[in-house]
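User: Last request for today: this protein with iron/sulfur cluster, please.
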Amino acid sequence: MGAIQGSIFASSKRLQMTDSIDLTVQSLQAHAVEHDHWCIAWSGGKDSSATLTLIMWLLDSGRIPRPKSLTVFYADTRMELPPLAIAARQIMDDLRERGIEVQVVRAPMDKRFFVYILGRGVPPPNNNTLRWCTRQIKVDPMSAAVEHMLGIAGKALMITGVRQGESAIRDARIEMSCSKDGAECGQGWYQQVLPNAKGVRGRIATLAPLLHWRVCHVWEWLKHWAPTAEFGDWSTAMIADAYGGDEAEEINARTGCVGCPLAQEDTALKTVLQNPKWAHLEPLLRLKPLYRELREPRHRIKKAGLDRLKDGSIAKNPQRMGPLTFEARMTGLDRVLAIQAEINAHGPSIDILDAEEESRIRELIALKTWPDGWDGDEPLADTVMDTVYQNGSVQPLLFGATA
Ligand code: SF4
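Assistant: Here's the final one, the structure of the complex with iron/sulfur cluster:
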């Protein structure tokens, strides 16, 4: 009885998968085949990896016609979960073996995550006022790479892994928020922000052919379909395993940078750590608290009073907290290097901060670099001072500053 029931469930799942794939084929036939040049914005996470490998299978099996050119852009933030970075490398090797052009897209040195924080002194991003990371390490490098490609191709279609499940069919709204559990950071931005980027505007269309896929189908594809010879023999099971294997759907971890300061919890990393093969990555759990600590006033400077912006206007927030002190940056650098060294002494090595990045961070600190609008003679952010309001009025300290 159990076996019969099991096979009924299995075959109904297969039917649902086939329906989802059929809808994807219809979406590609309706919107993609008219374009000569296709690109895929891939970040190594679950949705974009499912999109990439499914499209490869649809092309290889002749279910959709081949475009004149196909370029896969891998968004390498340098902050990927190690098992995902390894899976991405294997998939890139396979793509290249099949003659597919793959470009690895990275932010320029001074804009990379750690160089920007520890070298230039910009505090780690947060959900409120300072979310600089997605645009800087994902969207801007991608639009630069696409702009370069458009110089040759003229126009192109950008395929993204945006996925909304059934709600997409109801309201056709694309969520930009990727701080939610289960989401893949960056894909909504590629879908919505990228087509309007300078240098690209008007020359790319975007398409999300897995928009309607339910998350269980994404896991099913990555874990059980794509790795088989029939569907392309892709190294995608590792991605599903990193997110909890068959329990991935319940765990519903967000896909993005390791230790992402915008996520509530390091769910993906904690899930990976349960696998003995990856237990040596445990020191990565120290990244999130480090980011939190670096945002504290004692590690930053602040404006002493009214802050005039470049255009002469007065900033909304007088006495706002700003960049990291040099001491904080050096402490941060030492801690990240210690985390990396500890991991590399106990298992397959990681490379979240390489020698070139380290030396650039040290150079920027030695050059006494401050972000635009700061010159370093501002007071420490934990200095007790009179309060200055935006209208210029000052409320003196109640008891005066004590020596
Ligand atoms: S995953 Fe987190 S840290 Fe990485 S770009 Fe997205 S929001 Fe920023």
